[in-house]
Amino acid sequence: MDARGLISSLWKPRRNRKGWLRLAFDPLIRLVNLFELLSTTVEPLTQETITDLVPGFPESPLARARAFERAKASLREIGIPLRTVSLPGRSQVGYRIEVQDIQFELDLTRTEWAALEAALGCAVFVGQYGRHFETRLGLLYRQAAPIVWEMGELVHLHPDLGRAIAESRRLRFVYRGLERDIFPFGVLMRWGHAYLVADERGQQKSFRTDRMEPPFMVGQIDEYPRPADLRSALPEHPWLLEVDEKVEVTLVGSRAQLELLGARVAVETDGDPTVDGGSLTTGTVEVSNVGALISDLLMEAHPVVPIEPLAVRQRFMRQVEAVLHSLETDLRVGAPEVIDPIPLSPARSRKTRTLEDRFRAVQGLLSYLRVNGGSATIASLAEASGLVPTEVVELLESASLAGLPPYSPDVLLDVIVDEELDLVEVSIDSGLSRTQRIDVVEAMTVLATLEAVTSIMDGEVSELQSASEKLRLAIRQQLLRSGEVINSDNPPEVVALLRRAIAEPECVEFDYVDAEGRVSVRHVFAVSLFVLAGRWYLFGLSDGSGRHFRLDRMRQVRLLAFDSCQDESEIRKARRSLDRLDPLGLRSSGTPTRLQLRAEQLATLEALTMGVFDHDGDAFVVYSFREEWLERLLLALGPGTSGVFGAGLLAAVRARGESLLTLLTGLTGNLESGC
Hints:
- The structure is a single chain.
- The N and C termini lie far apart (99 Å).
- The strands form 8 sheets. Strands 3, 4, 21, 22, 23, 24 and 25 form a 7-stranded mixed β-sheet that branches.
- It is globular and about 90 Å long.
- It is α+β, with helices and mostly antiparallel strands.
- Among the domains are: 3-102 and 346-433, no CATH class; 103-137 and 142-234 and 435-490, no CATH class.
- The longest helix has 27 residues, at 647-673.
- Residues 358-472 form the PafC HTH domain.
- This is WYL domain-containing protein.
- Residues 160-213, 493-558 form the WYL domain.
- It holds the Pfam family HTH_PafC.
């Protein structure tokens, strides 16, 4: 034993009063010690033995039993399976954690770890359990990423759905009020949502996973011929989802607006009608989801209305008329309520951090240290984890206090935190720092993310490819199969060019068609790419400030020399300003508005806000940069929306709705007169 180990072994049991109190009463230390004991014991241990060996359990037998039950529940909540074994010859049970239940080895090089971390760092995982599997893999949250890929819907898959895919089992559930009995093939990411592709009575079907109602009944193992391409299960546009009978709709609007909507535009003539001084023309689109079409048309900045067939035109007019009527009932005039944006920061307040959160944070920090050779700066750990430096120090100091009697170096978590040198060193062989097993849903999420990110890397990163193969192999050994997960929101060709501009770095120039159909030339320093609700965006510096640009509205993208671009300090500021969880900055900069909605309006709200809204009790909070956008949203949501709004906003909603009805009435008169 070296001098350092001797000092540690002598010092551990002889701490001052403050140290002993912390050791005795901090539930985190007790949970770490419980994990270490149960993951290293050869034989199952009884509750009595465990509570005797692990410091910090109460003296009272009843209180001790309750504390042990809470600790067991915490381990299971974290995702650590605790095996219960009947002990021979006694009416007692023993407990232990099997290493093979919680770990699989990823034999990755340091460069492969870095590539894997960078790739998974490109994804935004939302929800209560969104980032836990990253921690178990030894990968921590990173605030800045050149590409942000949204995979929020995927991590919300029901575990029984993941199990049915992994084990090739039939699945029963309720969907749109009907019981469905299907064989699942895999999951398809499209338009910001996850869809299950399955066989139902010999037909290939798709089901939006967030609309599948539990309970899920996992049936017998079965095998069906898998489709050659899951992409064929969904149409190219949400208007073509099979909700209504397919129909060809004739639209009237400006040529630029119709082209952005993907309509087949007719040739303009001198006799075409005009509105607001601009010429209108006609175009056609095929639709089998009329509700989605009408909502999208009402969100357009300039009027675009359906004139044929009659049923679609009447449905459009009824929705506008119903919203105008609601101005007298549900949409009330008043002083808009002041609402504080609901924060989405990954670093939760220390006061609200649960025991399970703290355990996962320690697990993630130790895993990160192991992957990075046993040492890292406090600043880098804080940046990677999303914690503040004081929390990093507190958690690692708590870990350094953990240990089991007789407190010899082989059972200590040897963690040294030097705040003066901004350095953390760790020398441990603990299950806490090892790569943890992930479940089938997490496996699908990881593989989908790697697939999505790798598809836009142009095969440039060999380390990422080799790391992905090793991860896939480890997952295949753990699970029967992880299912096929495809993100078919294929990025446009300019993504590769923009990635190069971000990496070099360089500036880009392009023609941009804004929401009102106007075309202008933009010069931008490219900071980041991100996907939100299946739509690609570029975030960059333009005219000295951060701006967002939709890639589907960019034309003729070309690189420019960096010299003619932006100031270095502004570039650094822009990179720090991008929040992965809210890349459009709606929550931080937009104006929050509270709405009351009916249940059937939620799908429309998701589509029109790209999922950027929050729940506040029985209401929803949306965020807007411009009041004009909120006007259009109230029309597009249709009747059933209620709330308190400013008089000016409601007057603008009325004016917009009446102008649409006037336009449609005039166009209808022309049709009926044969003009």
